[in-house]
Amino acid sequence: SAVISQKPSRDICQRGTSLTIQCQVDSQVTMMFWYRQQPGQSLTLIATANQGSEATYESGFVIDKFPISRPNLTFSTLTVSNMSPEDSSIYLCSVGRGTGNTIYFGEGSWLTVV
Amino acid sequence: AQSVTQLDSQVPVFEEAPVELRCNYSSSVSVYLFWYVQYPNQGLQLLLKYLSGSTLVESINGFEAEFNKSQTSFHLRKPSVHISDTAEYFCAVRGKAAGNKLTFGGGTRVLVKP
User: What are phi and psi of B43, to 5 degrees?
Assistant: First the structure.
């Protein structure tokens, strides 16, 4: 498995502001993934963060809105920029590890925009 | 491309009764299959996975799932549920080739009643 720590665990933010979520993994991983879970919904992949290169974004997500950093093999950040109430979601960091590159998730960052 | 369908959005069940959560997938390539559980106000935890070998896989807390290739299904079962099994359950699939992404179903909310 994997130990994945996210900060903050919860936050209430004002619309128009930005928030950076941090993700720390217990050991080195090649790929880290950021997901969004809107209220009552399933998970949607935002982007894949690779160390040493730009993140790869999924359709519907853009770098200006969700800039990602990956400075080393155990850490990544996701910024939610210029927030609106529609950005209220759980943001989850995940990594692939082990047989089949099984995906493990952090506890999530629960974001409410008011 | 791949997709996952969880046929039931909610499943109410009485304590000590059996439960089955249905999951069907479509994919043009060979896949790995996963079930994740999300307890109230928590992140996602891996419940069990099928990578290869025996088509019947089990978790440590009494759940099992069977991979049926001909029916492209990976249904989750538990013969006797507890109140603590109240959670949302997500089926997910990922192509075996490197770089393939994890695709989630819409989730099934299980409410165990006393």
Answer: -80, -170
Residue B84 main-chain phi, psi, to 5 deg: -70, -10
Q: Is residue A68 within 8 Å of A21, Cβ to Cβ?
A: no
Measured in whole angstroms, how far is the alpha carbon of residue B18 from the centre of its chain? 15
| Cβ of residue A102 closer than 8 Å to a chain B Cβ | yes
Considering CB atoms only, which of A41, A48, A107 is closest to B42? Answer: A107
- Structure tokens that stand for A38 in this block: 């809107």
Strands A31-37 and B73-78: unpaired
Helices (H), strands (E): how many in chain A? 0, 11
Contact between chains at B44 and A105 (C-beta distance less than 8 A): yes
Substitution target in A32, A43, A44, A104 with the highest count of B β-carbons within 10 Å is A43
- Report how far residue A113's alpha carbon sits from residue A11's, in angstroms, rounded to the nearest whole number: 8
- Model confidence pLDDT, tens digit, residues B6-46: 999 999 999 999 999 999 999 888 889 999 999 998 889 99
Place of tokens 């997709």: B3
Q: Give the β-pairing of B64-68 and B73-78.
A: antiparallel
Find chain B residues with C-beta within 8 A of A46's C-beta. Answer: none
Tell me the mean pLDDT in the region B73-78: 97
Q: How many Å apart are CA A29 and CA A97, to the nearest integer?
A: 7
In sequence order, the β-bridge partners of residue B94 are B32, B102
Hey, what are B29's tokens? 């390539």
